[in-house]
Amino acid sequence: MRNIVTFYVTYLMCLFLGITCVVLVSHWNYSYRGGFAWDGSNKHFNWHPVLMVTGMVVLYGNAAIVYRVPLTWGQNKLPWKLLHAGLLLLSLIMSVTGLCAVFDYHNTNHINNLYSLHSWIGICTAALFTAQWVIGFTAFLLPWTPMGVRSLVKPGHVWMGAIILVLSIVSCISGINEKLFFALKANTNGTLPYSMLPPEAVLANSLGVIIVAFGLVVLKILSNQVWQRPEPAEDEEVYRPLAYDGS
Amino acid sequence: MRNIVTFYVTYLMCLFLGITCVVLVSHWNYSYRGGFAWDGSNKHFNWHPVLMVTGMVVLYGNAAIVYRVPLTWGQNKLPWKLLHAGLLLLSLIMSVTGLCAVFDYHNTNHINNLYSLHSWIGICTAALFTAQWVIGFTAFLLPWTPMGVRSLVKPGHVWMGAIILVLSIVSCISGINEKLFFALKANTNGTLPYSMLPPEAVLANSLGVIIVAFGLVVLKILSNQVWQRPEPAEDEEVYRPLAYDGS
């Protein structure tokens, strides 16, 4: 009982930090960076941080811990599998759209793509995420995948899921840091430089700290073995195609 | 047996990646950034990346996995505890010296301290590392700490150890990215800008990728339960002060 209360307190903290991340990244880009458009301007770029933080960190993190919610344990696993896969597909679509935003912006403004360390780590993270989703779909949702393959893939899937979140956070922090050095320069439109910590810098730095805090809470939930969904013992487990999956 | 072979292959990979990180960060700062000095110049700053990558990532990561080496399992734990604590103390001293390098450089050149997101995450990581070392020393090496306290502290110590490595990597990647944007500007001493990916950029980006790979291998070793040092069952465990610790 105490474990369940601790879980829900941690879960609420995760939801609160996630919502704060989305609010802060949107507020930063709307109020300080000029808002949003899809026209090749700076406003086009602004979709990049918003979609990456919302999709690849907040939505991804929440999707990763779906099975850890004790409320779902007594129930048929299939709807929660579909929710897990569905949320991650939405997260993947948002991430790819976020990548399109920065590539389009660069191409329109004749800026090279994929030169910074941020972009190298970020593109590897997105590629790993895509592979993870496809492998996860093939192994756990296609009805003809044998249970043996599912059991074999599962530990790697769980571990890689956590690692992709870590890499997303590495990408976000290096990206926010880079953006602030680009955007906050002395004598440009009367803005204070980054080194003088104007309000925008405090806001975006705080966003970075809260992204890290969100990631640590999700990793804490994932690593606590007491919070893992109890699975039937291996000999009780029967191969069930998608349509009849009652595990 | 197969597990032990897999461990040593992974361990060798970890050593190889760690050594590569130290070689690359030293080569970058020696050959491209002008080398080392302690005189307030750019050469003074160059100690910062070298000491942080060597101390807070490579030495730290290797110290974290000392207990995972099967060779040590049949032996008295105390020498390995002292090696773990000693390597981490050396890592902490190198990290603090690396921080002194950047603070001294900033102060000499009238540059503000602790304004970037990189510095916020980095200083929090160093503070957590210091707290972790002091708590670890108090809980596991002071002879008068009761076994009950050790058992209570251990899971948190192991988890926080992994998290500090993740935060160190976040700090390193954002720092290398930031340094390359500072250092590689068009028309400065004839250097190509970062966006043209001159050899220095490829070298330092590769360093970043290898730091991430090193971190993932260490996290893999830490997370594999088969590779954990077998501990005596709780009822066999006896309170032993430091000098007689045979556990």
From TrEMBL, chains A, B:
Localization terms from the record = Late endosome membrane; Lysosome membrane
Q: List GO molecular-function terms, semicolon-separated.
A: metal ion binding; transmembrane ascorbate ferrireductase activity
Tell me if Transmembrane helix is a UniProt keyword of this record: yes
The record's annotation in InterPro entries points to: CYB561/CYBRD1-like (IPR043205), Cyt_b561/ferric_Rdtase_TM (IPR006593)
| Residues of the Cytochrome b561 domain | 13-223
The protein's annotated catalytic reaction(s) are: Fe(3+)(out) + L-ascorbate(in) = monodehydro-L-ascorbate radical(in) + Fe(2+)(out) + H(+)
**UniProt keyword list:** Electron transport, Endosome, Glycoprotein, Heme, Iron, Lysosome, Membrane, Metal-binding, Oxidoreductase, Translocase, Transmembrane, Transmembrane helix, Transport
Q: Which domain of life is it from?
A: Eukaryota
Subunit-level organization:
Homodimer.
User: Which function does this protein serve?
Assistant: Transmembrane reductase that uses ascorbate as an electron donor in the cytoplasm and transfers electrons across membranes to reduce iron cations Fe(3+) into Fe(2+) in the lumen of the late endosome and lysosome. Reduced iron can then be extruded from the late endosome and lysosome to the cytoplasm by divalent metal-specific transporters. It is therefore most probably involved in endosomal and lysosomal cellular iron homeostasis.
Q: What is this protein called?
A: Lysosomal membrane ascorbate-dependent ferrireductase CYB561A3
Origin species, per record, is Triplophysa tibetana
Lineage of source species: Eukaryota, Metazoa, Chordata, Craniata, Vertebrata
